[in-house]
Amino acid sequence: MIEGSPTAGFAVVELARWTVWPGLVVSDDALSRCIYQLRRQLSEVGGSSRYKKFVETLPKRGYRLSVAPRTPVSPTAATAASRAATARFSVWVVPAAAAALLAAAIGVWSLNRADYFWRDPLAGAELVRLTDFDGTEQDAAISRDGALVAFLSDRDGTFDVWLHRVDTGAFENLTHGGASDLRNPAVRTVDFTPDGSDVLFWTRFADSSASSVAIRRWAVPSAGGLPRPYLDGVAEVAWSSDGTRMVYHTTASGDPIFVTEPDETVGHQIYVAPPGFHCHFVRWSPDDAFVYFVFGRPPGETDIWRIAATGGEPERITFHDSRVTYPVLLDERTLLYLATAEDGSGPWLYGVDVGRRVPHRIGFGLQPYASLAASADGRRLVATLTTPRTSLWRAPILDRRTQSSDAVRIELPALGGHAPRFASDYLLYLSPINGLDALWEVSGGSARVLWDDRRRRVVAGPAVEPGGHRVALPAVVGDKARLHVFDPADSTARVLAPELDVRGAPAWSPDGRWIAIAASRGSGTQLFKIPVDGDAPVPLVDEYSIDPSWSPDGRFLVYRGTEEGPSFRLKAVTEAGERHEMPNLILPRGADRFALVPAGVLSAGIGLVVLKGELLRKDFWVVDLASGIERQLTDLGEDFVIGDFDVSPDGREIVFDRVRQESDIVLIELARS
To answer: How many C-beta atoms lie closer than 10 Å to residue 129's C-beta?
Structure first.
């Protein structure tokens, strides 16, 4: 604390305390430097070292500005001397003190803005690799006491829930192939009950009506035994510090968040997201005052927010606007989480002081992270380190289901490739150069770069003009994504509808006059059709809508609507913006890409090629939009995790990217403070 007489100097001190340093934890060393600078300035302005004594040290209390004389004098002389001293202090010293203290305060404020006082919680930490299995390990969780680690692994052929005992190093398969569709990258799928007696895991299954999918949390004893149903309709759940209260969210629209009181199983709602937005990865603060959660439009436009456990307005904690997942709190102020960087790389491990909110990338080496969890005392972390690899493949469409043995890998000169597209006599795809995606062309076994602009970061797959060569490509310029039209013939690019902040992938109209794409003008994400000649964009849908695909005859577009839990519904709109009827199609999250093919190519009517199956294991299907009849085109097996794809104009071939995750579970033991 700093005390002072009722002068201008005290007002500046109070301003510094309550305006410049609100909620800031300032070390003794930083405060001592400020007092030193203040005393030095007083000495220089006053011309004598005695003016430094105007700042007194009060043992165990702080500091005081003082001008009281120290030698005994008569009352009359004391009054006169005091007035004279006060006058001199006010004229010369107080302004100097005020200026010096304000300068020191601004210095500390600047250090605060730069987060000078941040300390890496992983400094001195020890990393131990827990697994070295052949295959993939995902979504690791740790018990509150730090003694048990649970995770998903396909070590025995199918994905199961595994348990690792840290003290003995023993591993145990808890589900033995008895659970299916366990993986969901959008939520924390594995967790422990507060006492560690059960491991909870997430599954998805068809409901009794077979028209949609439902989810369930199961519990399997960590000591071994049969899984049992635990919570229906609950995507994620977390417990308060004493284990008596739950926070959870369901799969209803907006992922409503509920909090229970002790001994309750059904909670009261404290928040629900607006249409098109989601709330995932719920977690309590250590003092149970707040609920932290990831909010936004997954997968790539999210951040961490918090809300009072009693409800109210959410408060934003991070500002990445990227893929943010797995928040954990080590203490009241230290938040760790995973996020992709501005260049799209990662996810990396970040730390932030929730008071200052300046993100810091931390961690070990350059390997991306795929999950993160912490023990109750914040001393042990368990994480998934991963190396994703993408490759391009061709698969013929046959009268029978195409098998993995029928698929052929496309040899590429660069490090992997994704988002392939058929052009007239070549393929386009995206592949990174120095961390940023570039647009490549591959033809006749050779490849070359068509677009490599370090100022523009590509954020979605390209769209090729039907019968032409122009390419529509969404890329970030400044802080917003813009729709670019690129002509490989002369390497020129121009921006269409620069007032729109675009989302997802574009689609050309068959006549080449329009490009459909989702965009935001400040009131949500909706479909627009943008004239290629540069005229004003035309809105098509007045609700959340994204990822359009234009019909071959140009009459309508199919698009993706709001996600409903782990799935979403496909809808259609005419080119004039009116509703278009189509079969009831519900697809799993991750099946964002779909393609329309002409009637008679793969089905009697216009065919819609989609991905169906589990969240991370899907195959190609075609749906006849006239009759609703579905036919499975491929059966590629567990090893083929498919991302983006395209169908050849004649319907004889599919080109797609295959994603493989090479990952392991690691334990991070934090150093003692």
So the answer is: 10
Bridge partners (DSSP) of residue 487 are 492
- 155, two tokens: 């070590």
Structural tokens at position 544:
């959340």
Ramachandran class of 547: left when φ > 0, alpha when ψ lies in -120 to 50, beta otherwise? left
The three-state secondary structure class of 377 is: coil
Structural contact between residues 339 and 348, judged by C-beta atoms closer than 8 angstroms: yes
* Cα–Cα distances in angstroms (integers) from residue 215 to residues 181, 206, 210, 220, 269, in the given order: 10, 9, 13, 16, 19
Lowest mean pLDDT among 63-72, 254-263, 279-288, 616-625: 63-72
Confidence at residue 166, expressed as pLDDT on a 0 to 100 scale: 94
SS3 of 382-419: the string is EEEEEEEEEEEEEEECCCCCEEHHHCEEECCCCCCCEE
Q: Are 506 and 458 in contact (CB under 8 A)?
A: no
How many residues in total does the chain contain? 673
| The pair of three-digit structure tokens given for residue 373, joined into one six-digit string | 């969890």
Q: Which residues contact 460 (CB under 8 A, 6 or more apart)?
A: 419, 474, 504, 505, 506
Which tokens belong to 369? Answer: 């992270």
Residue 594 and residue 548 in contact, taking contact as beta carbons nearer than 8 Å: no
Helix axes 94-113 and 28-46, enclosed angle (nearest 10): 150
pTM as predicted: 0.71
Q: Which pLDDT tens digit goes with each residue over 449-476?
A: 888 887 888 888 999 999 878 999 999 8
Is the per-residue pLDDT at 94 higher than 60? no
> How far is it, in rounded angstroms, from Cα 571 to Cα 559?
5
Query: How does strand 480-487 pair with strand 463-464?
Result: unpaired
Residue 666: pLDDT band with limits 50, 70, 90: very high
Q: Which long-range contacts (CB under 8 A, 24 or more apart) does 530-535 make?
A: 530/483, 530/496, 530/497, 530/500, 531/496, 532/485, 532/496, 534/496
Handedness of CA 502, 505, 507, 513 (dihedral sign): positive
Residues 6+ apart with CB under 8 A from 454: 434, 436
CA atoms of 476 and 112, how far apart (whole Å): 30
Q: Answer yes or no: are the C-beta atoms of 665 and 380 closer than 8 Å.
A: no
Bond into 552 cis (ω within 30): no
Q: CA–CA separation, 450 vs 479, rounded Å?
A: 24
Give whole-number Cα distances, 636 to 125, 205, 405, 469, in Å. 42, 21, 8, 32
Reference 260, options 268, 250, 249; nearest CA is 268
Inter-residue contact 593 to 505 (CB < 8 Å): yes
Beta-sheet strand order (sheet of 546-550)? 546-550, 556-564, 567-574, 586-588
CB 603 within 8 A of CB 594: no
Q: In angstroms, rounded to a whole number, what is the distance separating the alpha carbons of residues 186 and 335?
A: 19
